[in-house]
């Protein structure tokens, strides 16, 4: 019988005959193999139903009635329902090297890490991802003991903050004072809940052919000028555009700036697609691309100039959450993640290291960080939705 506390992978393996019922409710994507392997191990049925506003009592009752009517009761499959020890959802430029680095290190110390259950992925798709489910999770046991995540996501939203952060379910693991490169903008969490790991630094890339006789942008506010109408590409697609970019524009210039920026955005692209477009020798698709510093290093077009804004590259956070009371148990993992060697890997991939002994001199001085006062003085989830609505109202009129 199903109670709702089972994870999705368990249900898929134990009751494959019920998957069609989930498909009828529009939940079929969760049961595709690639998604089961990513999030099915530690997402409970009740969480999925709540996030999709499906009455869990009625739906689970209907599932159990089907099971009662089946003559074959041997479908139950023994499976491990243990939660992950470590999950990481990383910026695209970091995922593969970090995963290989972790796997190599863990294999070298089998005694310490042979039982470690981990998942390392790129920052998952916004349409079907782990992040929206966080608003419905009520039990901290549904979460891995150590979580690494990217961007201003649902870990900063009011439901998660009130349910877990403010109640002390997590505590920062910061064995040293942060490297001054990021700490000069007060990057570390003053309340000691989030462990700041690195940042995805966002810069401008300017196609000088497409720019023409317009003035080279120097500050982020320059991108709001009318002469850049329909001339900028940023990360996004369909009805989603990058919050790491939109939130700083709102903070610095208010909601009016969101409409101005929407007029100037030509389209949304993945950063890898931006690189391909900007590298075209016969001219790219936009005058300005907003992309991570890592991806800008792939540019090979002499007509393209990387601009580190004078008011700072935008620092999109990459952080850790460690369950309270788990730091000692996971000390081998945490010491590895926060080590100088890991910091050097980050630095070499053009992500700033927070380790004090790592040299970040290859990065320009100026950093733009939203700040903890902003994150804690706003209902971040609601603000993101308000910004998206204002942006799309203008965008859809184009």
TrEMBL record:
Keyword entries, A-Z: Signal
Taxonomic superkingdom: Bacteria
Gene3D superfamilies: Periplasmic binding protein-like II
UniProt keyword Oxidoreductase present: no
Keyword Signal: yes
Protein name: ABC transporter substrate-binding protein
Species this chain originates from: Carboxylicivirga linearis
């Amino acid at each position: 019988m199903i109670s709702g506390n089972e994870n999705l992978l368990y249900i898929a393996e134990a009751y494959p005959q019920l998957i069609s019922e989930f498909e009828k409710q529009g939940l079929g994507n969760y049961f595709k193999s690639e998604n089961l392997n990513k999030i099915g191990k530690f997402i409970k049925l009740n969480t999925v139903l709540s996030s999709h506003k499906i009455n869990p009592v009625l739906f689970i009752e209907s599932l159990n009635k089907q099971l009662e009517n089946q003559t074959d009761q041997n479908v139950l499959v023994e499976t491990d329902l243990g939660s992950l020890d470590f999950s990481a959802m990383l910026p695209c430029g970091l995922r593969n090297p970090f995963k290989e680095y972790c796997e190599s290190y863990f294999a070298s110390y089998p005694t310490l890490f042979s039982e470690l259950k981990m998942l390392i992925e790129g920052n998952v798709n916004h349409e079907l991802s782990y992040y929206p489910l966080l608003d419905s999770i009520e039990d901290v046991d549904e979460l891995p003991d150590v979580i690494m995540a990217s961007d201003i996501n649902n870990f900063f939203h009011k439901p998660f903050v009130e349910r877990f952060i403010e109640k002390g379910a997590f505590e920062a693991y910061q064995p040293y004072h942060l490297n001054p490169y990021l700490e000069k903008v007060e990057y570390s969490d003053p309340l000691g809940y989030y462990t700041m790991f690195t940042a995805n630094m966002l810069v401008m890339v300017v196609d000088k052919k497409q720019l023409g006789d317009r003035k080279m942008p120097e500050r982020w506010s320059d991108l709001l000028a009318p002469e850049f109408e329909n001339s900028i590409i940023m990360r996004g697609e369909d009805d989603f555009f990058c919050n790491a970019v939109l939130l700083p524009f709102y903070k610095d210039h208010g909601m009016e700036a969101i409409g101005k920026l929407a007029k100037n955005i030509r389209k949304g692209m993945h950063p890898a697609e931006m690189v391909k477009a900007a590298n075209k020798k016969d001219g790219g698709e936009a005058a300005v691309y907003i992309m991570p510093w890592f991806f800008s290093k792939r540019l090979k077009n002499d007509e393209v100039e990387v601009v580190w804004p004078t008011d700072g590259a935008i620092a999109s956070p990459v952080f850790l959450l460690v369950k309270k009371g788990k730091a000692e148990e996971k000390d081998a993992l945490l010491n590895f993640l926060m080590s100088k060697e890991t910091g050097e890997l980050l630095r070499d991939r053009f992500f700033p290291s927070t380790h004090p002994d790592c040299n970040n001199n290859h990065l320009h001085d100026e950093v733009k960080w939203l700040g903890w006062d902003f994150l804690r003085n706003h209902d971040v989830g609601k603000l993101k939705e308000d910004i998206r609505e204002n942006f799309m109202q203008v965008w859809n009129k184009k």
